């Protein structure tokens, strides 16, 4: 139930954002969809790492080896962040070329370039949050990712994006600022949850090993 809720909340916020951007203009909607498509493609890599991390952490916990679970979790988080740092650099340096892969429309280019810059800001956060979701899932915790998405995306990110987009008149970039804030919030909350889990294991490693030996 929690896993389904987490997916609904995470995917739903971007679906709602697309509907909101559609109220602005055809050019804004096109630019939003182009950048979201590219960002979703790069997201597939940490998503795969997330699934692998869930298995690795789960197996380590199953054999009562908290040290291995910690190593697997941090390794996956580091790899996810490093990969998304690379895609962030691409988004920052050649946003114009990325938009031109889809269209040469001047109006779409004018909106799409700053959206790619904003997407570059959230790339690392997006990678960290999805891998952290998998790592926590490996520990059996699916409730925390759901609550983190509810609070950060729906309680903070989307309202802030709405206010910047329509209240402040920033348009699509304003909405994406809110989405970036939401992703950053999810990433930080899940990292904090993983750190607490790791610290709890480190307090009784001897007991864990003794139980494994029985």
Structural summary, described in words:
- The chain is an all-alpha fold and 214 residues long.
- Helix content is 88%, strand content 0%.
- The chain has one domain (2-202).
- The model is unreliable at 204-214 (pLDDT under 50).
Essential attributes:
214 residues, mainly alpha, 88% helix, 0% strand
Globular, elongated, flat, extended or rod-shaped: what is the shape?
elongated
Main structural class: mainly alpha
Number of helices: 8
The major β-sheet equals: none
How far is the first residue's CA from the last residue's CA?
34 Å
Reading the helices and strands in chain order gives: HHHHHHHH
Radius of gyration: 19 Å
Total number of strands: 0
Provide the residue-averaged pLDDT. 91
Spans with pLDDT under 50 lasting ≥5 residues?
204-214
Domain count: 1
Task: Provide a short characterization of the protein structure.
It contains 8 helices and no strands. It has 214 residues and is mainly α.
Topology:
Layout (H helix, E strand, L loop, with lengths): L1 H20 L4 H37 L3 H28 L1 H6 L5 H33 L4 H25 L4 H31 L2 H9 L1
Helix pairs in contact: 1-6, 1-7, 2-3, 2-5, 3-5, 5-7, 6-7
């Amino acid at each position: 139930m929690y896993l389904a809720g987490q997916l609904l909340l995470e995917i739903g916020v971007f679906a709602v954002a697309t509907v909101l951007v559609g109220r602005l203009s055809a050019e804004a909607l096109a630019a939003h969809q182009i950048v979201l498509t590219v960002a979703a493609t790069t997201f597939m890599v940490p998503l795969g790492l997330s699934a692998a991390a869930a298995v690795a952490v789960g197996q380590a916990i199953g054999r009562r080896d908290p040290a291995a679970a910690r190593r697997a979790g941090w390794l996956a988080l580091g790899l996810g962040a490093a990969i998304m740092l690379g895609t962030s650099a691409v988004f920052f340096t050649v946003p114009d070329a990325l938009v031109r892969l889809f269209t040469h429309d001047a109006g779409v280019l004018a909106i799409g370039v700053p959206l790619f810059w904003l997407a570059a800001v959230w790339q690392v956060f997006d990678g960290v949050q999805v891998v952290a979701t998998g790592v926590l899932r490996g520990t059996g915790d699916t409730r925390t990712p759901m609550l983190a998405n509810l609070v950060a995306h729906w309680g903070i990110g989307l309202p802030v994006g709405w206010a910047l987009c329509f209240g402040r008149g920033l348009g699509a970039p304003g909405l994406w600022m809110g989405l970036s804030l939401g992703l950053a919030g999810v990433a930080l909350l899940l990292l904090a949850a993983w750190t607490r889990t790791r610290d709890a294991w480190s307090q009784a490693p001897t007991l864990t090993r003794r139980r494994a030996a029985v």
